[in-house]
Structures are given as C-alpha cells and as structure tokens.
Amino acid sequence: MKVAVVGLGYWGPNLVRNFVSSENVSQVFCCDLDPQRVKHITKQFPNVKALSSFEAVLDSDCDAVAIVTPISMHYNLAKQVLERGKHVLVEKPLASSARECDDLIQCADRKKLVLMVDHTFIYTGAVRKIKEIVDRGDVGDLYYLDSVRVNLGMFQHDVNVLWDLAPHDLSIMDYVIGKLPEAVSAVAVNHYNHQEDVAYLILHYGQNIIAHIHVNWLAPVKIRRMLIGGSKKMVVFDDMEPSEKVKIYDSGVKVVTREGIYRTLVEYRTGDMFAPKLDQAEALTLVVKDFVNAISTGKKPVADGCAGWRVVRILEAAEQSLKQSGALVHL
After folding, report:
1. How far apart are CA 50 and CA 68, in angstroms?
2. Of 275 and 153, which is predicted with more confidence?
3. What are the pLDDT digits (tens) for 260-279?
4. I need a surface site. Which of 15, 30, 56, 122 has the fewest CB within 10 A?
5. With contact defined as beta carbons under 8 Å apart, do 248 and 235 qualify?
6. CA-based Rg of the chain, rounded to a whole angstrom?
7. Mean pLDDT over residues 197-224, rounded?
8. Whole-angstrom Cα distance, residue 183 to residue 22?
9. Mean pLDDT of 9-15
C-alpha cells in the first residue's frame, strides 16, 4: 500500500522512518507547510516522495494518511481524508472534542475505513507486560494508579499541559483498566503563555479504584513513572530506566483480627521484587504494523477510534472541572 505522512515536525519523521521500513508499504509520501522540513526528509529518505500541499495528498493515489499536526487541525484534516476514501492514523489526541471524535468514528464506519489514533505507549513492551500482569490476576484487585509525567518544557501554544501530556497516561490507564472512569476532577494553574502548565487530575473508576495524574512543564527533572497498586502485588513502571522499566513488588497490606483491645490490625507484607523481561521492539514500529494490518485484514486496531474518543472524553471532563475550580464531573 501507499501511505502519506502530513506534518514533519517532532513526531512526523519517526512515522516516515517506520513506514519506509514496513515491508507492506511500497511508497511513502510526505507533506509539510515548511519546505525545509520536506527537504530534510527527502534527503534522509531518497525514496520518499514530497507532495506540495494537503490537497495534493488527497488527490494522490495513497491508500492511507498519517496526520501529525497540531491538535486543532486533527479533526478537519482527518475528516477530509476519510471523505476521500483513505484510511487515517491520527497523532494523539484524536481530536479537540468528543463530538469531533464521534463524527470521525461514524464517518470511518460508514465508509468501512480504518480510523486509528497513535497511542504509542500502549504498544511498548512495558505497558503490554503490565496489561498481561493485571489481566492474569497477579496484582489482585486493582486499588489505584498514580502517574507522574513532568519535565522542564516543552511549552505548547495551542493546548495546556493536560491535553499535551496526560493523553499518554490516560491511554495507558484505559488500556489496563478497560473502561471509562465514572467521574473526574482536575485543578491546574498557568504561569506563562496563558496555558495551564501544572495540573493534577483525579479519576474515580468505582469499585474503590482511583487514579491520579500529575503533569507539569515546570519541573527541574524529567520523570515518567506510574505506580499500580493491588490487593496482591504492586507494579512500578519507570520509563526513564534504561533497563528494568517494570518492577513487580510482592508487597502490600492485610487486615487481621485479634482478641483484645485492638481487634483489627493492619499488617504490612514486604516480599521480593521481580523485573520481567520485556519485548524490546520499538513501539512506533508496532503502531505502524497494527495500522497496516488493520487495513489489510479488516481487524480492529488496538488503538481504534473508540479508544481515542475515551481519552478525549476524559480530557473534556477535566477541562469542565478546571472551570469549576476542581468540581467533580461525572462522565
């Protein structure tokens, strides 16, 4: 098949590289408003064909298009691609609103096309291993997920820190838990640029499962860490670790009943730590493989349009909570 990549900024070149490497892709096109970016890509990948405009992409004989542009452009560009009968892969988040996501999903279904969102983290060996551990019951009943994703920069001019960073953690939680939260609340502040740069998001899933996400553009260090607690074991996912990104701790608490003045006591259990072997395949390679496979076979991709809708729906609710000073918003 033939694939076009629209947007060659930070992430677009990575998609070009992976599509070029895909054995099922015969031709890769590229397009960007900046001619220098296009020139850089075609110099790096001589077989990639440059197209002069987005209209040229729509008029080309490509079968699929990857949209790697600012969030505000996702819906409009993706809708045009679908209307032209081409499959589409959209950088996260899928669109600027749940309504836009709904429209894209309906359009793709109507035309029998693949709509996929680039939730890269759920394709990493680490997150796939965590999903396997949770689904197998090793963690026991889920208690909480606590995530920190902070660093100094990169400030965005069109979206706040929640829309920029939180989709990564929300997509991981959606993949691992497998359902929408019942309610969310969020607080945030902005110090520069009229966009919130520090934010805290709390998600209530019911069944005593709670999740917390801290995202921040103003941290002195880069942290990418998630803690998952359960009734049997606990998991630490540290994406900054060069190896042993996932560690499973045989630690927890239990309540015991004894005779006497203290009838119920909490006892702590500290056991061994185990670091499982992880698949080292590049996550974006698996994203491209899933997208191409979905087009070829008709099989639903892991990060389909509905997964994109769920993440955007949470972000929308979080924005509503921000405007109400952190009030609980039910989904």
Report:
1. 16
2. 275
3. 555 566 667 777 899 999 99
4. 56
5. yes
6. 22
7. 97
8. 41
9. 95
- Angstrom distance (rounded) from CA 171 to CA 195: 22
SS3 string, the chain, reads CEEEEECCCCCHHHHHHHHHHCCCCCEEEEECCCHHHHHHHHHHCCCCEECCCHHHHHHCCCCEEEECCCHHHHHHHHHHHHHCCCEEEEECCCCCCHHHHHHHHHHHHHHCCCEEEECHHHHCHHHHHHHHHHHHCCCCCEEEEEEEEEEECCCCCCCCHHHHHHHHHHHHHHHHHCCCCCEEEEEEECCCCCCCCEEEEEEEEECCEEEEEEEECEEEEEEEEEEEEECCCEEEEECCCCCCCEEEEEEEEEEEECCCCCCEEEEEEEEEEECCCCCCCCHHHHHHHHHHHHHHHCCCCCCEHHHHHHHHHHHHHHHHHHHCCCCCEEC
What's the average model confidence in pLDDT over 60-77? 97
Contact call for residues 164 and 92 (beta carbons, < 8 A) = no
| pLDDT at residue number 257 | 66
d(CA 316, CA 308): 12
Instruction: For residue 109, give both structure tokens.
Output: 């279904």
Average of per-residue pLDDT across 54-68? 97
- Structure token digits, residue 248: 């499973």
Q: List the structure tokens of 225.
A: 């860490």
Q: How many residues does the chain have?
A: 331
Share of the chain above pLDDT 90, in %: 90
Block residue for tokens 């709509």: 115
User: Would you state the pLDDT for residue 251?
Assistant: 80
Contact criterion met (CB below 8 Å) for 185 and 119: no
Beta carbons within 8 Å of 56's beta carbon, 6+ residues apart: 31
Could you give the angle at the alpha carbon of 301 between the alpha carbons of 295 and 305, nearest 5°? 100
Query: How confident is the model over 219-242, as a mean pLDDT?
Result: 96
Q: Which amino acid is residue 39, in one-letter code?
A: K
Prior bond of 154 cis (ω within 30°) = yes
